[in-house]
Write a structure and sequence with these properties.
alpha/beta; ten-stranded mixed β-sheet; 12 helices; globular
């Protein structure tokens, strides 16, 4: 049986929609989670942090206990650090979390795109356990202290540089004990490429298409064709890296998107709110990796350039 104390002290960096939700679920299950909150600190301190579970008839649940901090120095060294902030802040994260890192600290990233685990490995060494959790879910933060889970989905875990080991398994089991559906990936790179089959077309075209929801992408023949081409290029890029993605998986991305209705992907929400968009991690890094293997990705290049222009403006 899993014991919450076996995970030790956990710091949660970037408690937005995804980080706040999963951090809240872990805290409710008895895990010692310390939330590093910046812009939302005062609101959460005043009114608490609330989770709304739409799959359970909109049940509202306060995160209790809630250990909120505004500075990493007040948290101190941790056994695990969960990084759920936007990848646009990756250059600053190693410096930010310095006070939290001890000799045996392990890491979990809950971030979009590629290059996140490598960022941690460069800063703190490849000898550590560095996990990535790929979140296949629909979660939105609708106010500074309210996070709504529209579709519970699941989290797929993979370990940087190898397969899930006993230390990694402790974190996965912590999520499971908190009521989160989990999967384990034998290859983190494969899991990342597969997730990009949805993220690259639907997050990107929602912005490039004029700030539209996923149902409008599916309904527009030109945008749907672009989505198909983007998926085919991701499939080719993955193959060049030794990863085979079957055609049926690409079709399944369309099948899963249909019932979402007028869904706003996370990148579109950031764009409409005039917040930084994770262009490099979601579109830039996969493009560069494909190019390094000699794979031409003209549709992805076009979309990347569109997004760079739109987000710069």
């Amino acid at each position: 049986m899993f014991s919450p104390s076996s995970l030790g002290k956990v710091a949660l960096i970037g408690p937005g929609a995804v980080g706040g939700y999963y951090g809240g679920m872990l805290a409710l299950s008895g895990i010692d989670v310390r939330f590093l909150m910046r812009s939302t600190y005062e609101a959460v301190l005043s009114d608490g942090l609330w989770l709304v579970h739409h799959a359970e008839d909109g049940r509202r649940q306060p995160v209790d206990p809630l250990h909120a901090h505004s500075e990493p120095s007040s948290i101190g060294a941790c056994d695990w650090i969960i990084i759920a902030g936007k990848t646009t802040a990756n250059d600053y994260i190693p410096e930010l979390i310095g006070p939290l890192v001890a000799q045996n600290t392990n890491f979990l990233t809950l971030q979009n795109g590629m290059g996140n685990v490598e960022n941690i490995a460069r800063a703190y060494g490849e000898h550590r356990v560095i996990l990535a959790g790929l979140c296949f879910t629909c979660i939105n933060r609708t106010s500074p202290n309210v996070i709504e889970s529209l579709l519970p989905g699941y989290v797929q875990f993979g370990r940087f540089g190898g397969t899930i080991d006993p230390a990694s398994e402790t974190m996965v089991r912590a999520f499971e004990s908190a009521g989160v559906r989990c999967r384990r990936a034998d290859s983190l790179d494969e899991a990342l490429w597969r997730k990009l089959c949805w993220n690259i077309p639907f997050n990107g075209l929602a912005i490039a298409g004029g700030g539209i929801t996923t149902d409008l992408i599916l309904a527009d023949p030109n945008l749907r064709l672009r989505a198909e081409k983007l998926m085919n290029e991701i499939q080719a890029g993955a193959k060049a890296c030794g990863i085979l993605i079957e055609d049926s998986f690409l079709q399944r991305q369309f099948d899963l998107t249909e019932p979402m209705g007028a869904y706003k992907p996370s990148s579109l929400i950031d764009f409409l709110a005039r917040k930084p968009v994770e262009v490099e991690a979601i579109w830039g890094e996969p493009y560069r990796r494909g190019l390094s293997k000699g794979v031409g990705m003209p549709e992805l290049k076009t979309l990347l350039e569109e997004l760079q222009s739109l987000t710069a403006a």
